[in-house]
Amino acid sequence: MQKQPLIDAHGVSLTFQMGERTVAVLRDVSLQVKQGTTVAIAGPSGSGKTSLLLLLSGLEQPESGVIRIDGRSLAELDRDQLADLRRDRIGIVFQSFHLLPSLTAVENVALPLQMAQAIDARGAALDMLARVGLADRAHHRPSQLSGGEQQRVAIARALVHRPQLLLADEPTGNLDDQTAQSVRELLFRLNREFGTTLVLVTHDMQFAEQCDRVLRLHDGQLQEVQHVVSA
Questions:
Q1: Residue 228 in this model has a pLDDT that exceeds 80
Q2: I need a surface site. Which of 105, 126, 183, 225 has the fewest CB within 10 A?
Q3: Model-level pTM?
Q4: Which domains can be identified in the chain, with CATH numbers?
């Protein structure tokens, strides 16, 4: 029996109102993603890539269509249940890091576990910081870290609870080439190590082409560009 996809979206549509004009951001988009695979979503600025990630995380709701994560329809979950789903199964990495400036690196990383009342959240956070190469920066605040270090802290925070799904929005967009390469390598290494499904939005085609699949979002439509996952 074939295992159900981790992400199963059908007929998803989303529009925005811009003055008197209605803009179709997503038009009848469907997407299936298997557990443990890596998927890149490319496309021009304003094409709806970030909106699609927000829909997959349950932070936004589509106007039509169905999105299921691990068999659960997001439309059937209330706000608290969606928050629980993100806490337990989904990690999110934003382009602008979204670290809390008053907290140290280890405190930022431990936050999701503390919210879930997990045992030894600090110990797990320290371990995850070591995995992303920041054991010696655990007690530094974001203002004391470089952009690449802040992004690695953000990745550690997104993965500390070992989610099934990691959604990454332009995770290398604000980084120089050398730092971006180290973050790319880190994301793929953690994907292999934890079996976490990775769905990322990127303008970096070199990054995208390292994924199992590359999809392009254009004019509200999602099209497969590359699919190299073996059966």
A1: no
A2: 225
A3: 0.89
A4: 7-227 (3.40.50.300)
